């Protein structure tokens, strides 16, 4: 309470009034006034309420909780950044991430799948093939190479890497992994393999490949069909090189290879077996006349292609018997070629050995005896 300085009578009256209050009522008044005071808690007040040891334990727990929360936030941020980096790397790479929840039979594909498999139908096919592959193999590590449809009947080749996560009962719970598009690698590998099989000058099969393919043809052929081997040699090729130069000679070889492609069937084996020597392996020929007409047609086409000067080829023909090998067949055709070369340019000679052939349902003779019948 506050009073004017010189009002002694008022102060006396209040003091007498206070003195008239009994002790119990005074304590009640004091207590009521105290509870109305709004005081903010301080560290010293807390320490007074709790002993120092308990306060220290509580403080330690609070610090640990704060550290855990901060660490969790930092770790989540780190994971979020790492996942973002992985997504970005996946976008610029040829990898396609997936998660397969085995118990719920749910296959989760990353967003990049929609860039390659654009329709829902294609995505459903991919899910079905991938799910079957994962369940049938149930492997950790590398998966079998699989082919998946992309668009318009086109398929791409993928190899997969998977990790199988098991539950407490050691049963498969989650399979995570990625598919890696290796289509370009497969194509490059096939191209390299093909280059090793081709002749660099003419783009026909080289000598080693021709031998391999003809051996396979001899081994796998139907015993009732007749195959023919033709050895072809450029006439006076040395004269062409000496007179017009090797560049012209190389062009002549390319012209001959073009003539071979235009003359013979797509399933015939065409190759270059020497400098200016070529060969053709014809499967299932109907008659000797067919083979001879092809050789004559070849000469005509070569002359049309090579208009700068006259060029012709000689041909030796041998027909495959059941017991023949590539070496035997080549030797007979080469012998017939030598005979053709001695007769002059542009000739075609069939090896003079009796060989049976089917022609229009009737058995006829080929070779020298066939020539006499004509």
Structure description:
With about 375 residues, the chain is of the alpha+beta class. Helix content is about 50%, strand content about 20%. It contains 13 helices and 13 strands. Strands 1, 2, 3, 4, 5 and 6 form a 6-stranded antiparallel β-sheet that branches. Strands 8-9-7-10-11 form a 5-stranded mixed β-sheet, with helices on both faces. A hairpin with a 5-residue loop joins strand 5 (about 155-165) and strand 6. Helix 9 (about 235-245) crosses helix 10 (about 245-265). Residues about 355-374 have low confidence and may be disordered.
- Secondary-structure element order, as H and E? HHHHEEHHEEEEHHEHHEEHEHEEEH
Distance between the ends:
152 Å
Q: Count the strands?
A: 13
Proportion in β-strands: 15-25%
Instruction: Bin the helical content.
Output: 40-55%
Supply the number of helical segments.
13
Gyration radius from CA atoms, angstroms = 48 Å
Category by helix and strand content: alpha+beta
Uncertain regions spanning at least 5 consecutive residues: 354-374
The pLDDT mean sits at 81
Main beta sheet strand tally, sense and closure? 6 strands, antiparallel
Overall geometry comes to rod-shaped
In brief:
With 374 residues, this protein is an alpha+beta fold. Helix content is 51%, strand content 20%.
């Amino acid at each position: 309470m506050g009073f004017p300085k010189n009002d002694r009578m008022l102060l006396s009256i209040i003091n007498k009034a206070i003195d008239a209050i009994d002790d119990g009522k005074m304590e009640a008044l004091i207590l009521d006034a105290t509870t109305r005071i709004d005081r903010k808690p301080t560290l010293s007040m807390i320490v007074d309420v709790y002993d120092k040891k308990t306060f220290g334990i509580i403080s330690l727990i609070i610090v640990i909780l704060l550290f855990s929360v901060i660490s969790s936030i930092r770790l989540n941020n780190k994971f979020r950044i790492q996942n973002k980096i992985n997504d970005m790397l996946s976008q610029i790479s040829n990898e396609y991430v997936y998660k397969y929840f085995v118990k719920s039979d749910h296959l989760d594909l990353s967003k990049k799948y929609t860039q390659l498999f654009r329709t829902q139908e294609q995505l459903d096919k991919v899910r079905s093939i991938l799910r079957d592959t994962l369940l049938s193999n149930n492997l950790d590590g590398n998966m079998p190479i699989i082919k998946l449809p992309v668009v318009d009947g086109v398929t791409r080749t993928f190899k997969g890497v998977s990790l199988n996560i098991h539950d407490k009962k050691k049963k498969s719970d989650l399979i995570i992994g990625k598919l890696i598009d290796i289509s370009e690698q497969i194509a490059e590998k096939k191209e390299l393999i093909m280059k090793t099989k081709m002749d660099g000058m003419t783009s026909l099969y080289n000598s080693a490949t021709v031998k391999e393919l003809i051996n396979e043809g001899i081994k796998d052929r139907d015993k009732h069909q007749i195959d023919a081997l033709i050895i072809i040699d450029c006439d006076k090729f040395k004269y062409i090189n000496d007179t017009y130069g090797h560049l012209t000679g190389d062009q002549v070889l390319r012209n001959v290879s073009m003539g071979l492609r235009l003359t013979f069937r797509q399933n015939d084996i065409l190759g270059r077996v020497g400098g200016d020597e070529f060969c053709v392996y014809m499967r299932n020929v109907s008659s000797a006349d067919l083979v001879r007409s092809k050789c004559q047609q070849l000469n005509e086409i070569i002359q049309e292609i090579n208009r700068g000067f006259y060029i012709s080829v000689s041909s030796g023909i041998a027909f495959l018997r059941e017991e023949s090998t590539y070496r035997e067949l080549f030797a007979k055709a080469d012998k017939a070629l030598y005979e053709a070369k001695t007769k002059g340019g542009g000739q075609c000679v069939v090896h003079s050995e009796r060989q049976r052939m089917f022609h229009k349902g009737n058995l006829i003779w080929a070779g020298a005896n066939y020539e006499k019948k004509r």
